[in-house]
Amino acid sequence: MARGDAPRDSYHLVGISFFILGLGTLLPWNFFITAIPYFQGRLAGANGTAGALSTNHTGPTDAFNFNNWVTLLSQLPLLLFTLLNSFLYQCIPEAVRILGSLLAMLLLFALTAALVKVDVSPGPFFSITMASAWFINSFCAVLQGSLFGQLGTMPSTYNTLFLSGQGLAGIFAALAMLTSMASGVDAQTSALGYFLTPCVGIVLSIVCYLSLPHLEFARYYLAKKPSQAPTQELETKAELLQCDEKNGVPSSPQKAALTSDVDPEKEPELEPAEPRDPGKPSVFVVFRKIWLTALCLVLVFTVTLSVFPAITAMVTSSTSPGKWSEFFNPICCFLLFNVMDWLGRSLTSYFLWPVENSRLLPLLVRLRFLFVPLFMLCHVPQRARLPILFPQAANFIIFMLLFAVSNGYLVSLTMCLAPRQVLAHEREVAGALMTFFLALGLSCGASLSFLFKALL
């Protein structure tokens, strides 16, 4: 909570700024994977589908394994820069990291938009797109870590607003895709408008960041640098997955323990019975306490990234060609996943089940492996080995509902349980470890997607 002598956030401008900054950090990843049909059409070399956002009835051939490579090269930078954030914090000023990352992302996305109008052969186009995906997500990782370093000085309400913006980035990308497809303009203009949308979002993020020093409320808090900023910057994407809050007020005792870690004004009130100087927490000791929860987090993301979007983006409607066939994947794959994933994460605001040390959590996590064969047996036309056992769209929709809700809930649950398994002074180390295992799970899943794709 804000201190009594703190200035007011007039018109909630600081809160709106951090919400837009949160939205901007995850727009690139979501806009890349949502546009998979466009990229596959370009790589297929078919003149009729080049530049089109929608797929045809049978789905474009993924000759370059684009789904797999774009996922892998988007997640590896997160793992790399999760480990390098402390080094970057010491060597590069904060303003350079944030503004430099935003400007680089803007230029790279402008390049992606410009390529819509340029006739490039599939090979060079694939290389340029993969390089863009790598560098854009590298800058995103730096940007997220740097902004979380700033949020370490702010009241927890602003952390929540930032995370809300990140959580809505996927939904925003899916809606932008549907709007472009339904606009009625030609395929190239539609694709150009789609890729210019995140450019506008990044420009707004730059304006919001540059406006912060001119707002009294932001100056008051950002002038107070946290003593453990490098450690806080390690908690990059993990913060996105922690329990939601309503208006900055924890809705359960479990959430109070979490939000007190990010609210500098509450820190002195934590665990008054503990020694004042408990010493530097041991990474090995903390890992022994949370290893099972961390393993569950790795397995949840391994399952998710092994089939989404590498396999799920290939599923098409089995009905005759038409409007529903064109809109099937953007709606039933990307929009449905992001909405239900957000809903699953929100459920931890009301209850946490199963509790820590329960055998049910590993069981539920293992059960999610069933989604791998289920999606692989859906209506994916490009296959050579496995049969299609679930040709109906209703089957895919049911699987996606359960898949997305369970992903959001179990990820949020593990991130909520980990701080409860350690002492108060060990929570920062636990958060950093969980962030590392989160990135590890994403990378493992992206790597496994190549194997599952080959088995189709």
Automatic annotation (TrEMBL):
Belongs to the SLC29A/ENT transporter (TC 2.A.57) family. GO terms for biological process: adenine transport; guanine transport; hypoxanthine transport; thymine transport. The lineage of its organism: Eukaryota, Metazoa, Chordata, Craniata, Vertebrata. Residues 247-278 are annotated as: Disordered. The chain crosses the membrane at residues 12-33, 69-88, 95-116, 128-149, 161-185, 191-212, 290-315, 327-344, 396-417, 429-452. It comes from the Eukaryota. It is found in: Apical cell membrane; Basolateral cell membrane. Keywords: Membrane, Transmembrane, Transmembrane helix, Transport. One of its GO terms (cellular component) is apical plasma membrane. It is a multi-pass membrane protein. SUPFAM superfamilies: MFS general substrate transporter. Residues 263-278 have a biased composition (Basic and acidic residues). It holds the Pfam family Nucleoside_tran. GO terms for molecular function: uridine transmembrane transporter activity. This is NBMPR-insensitive nucleoside transporter ei. PANTHER family: EQUILIBRATIVE NUCLEOSIDE TRANSPORTER, EQUILIBRATIVE NUCLEOSIDE TRANSPORTER 2. It comes from Oryctolagus cuniculus (Rabbit).
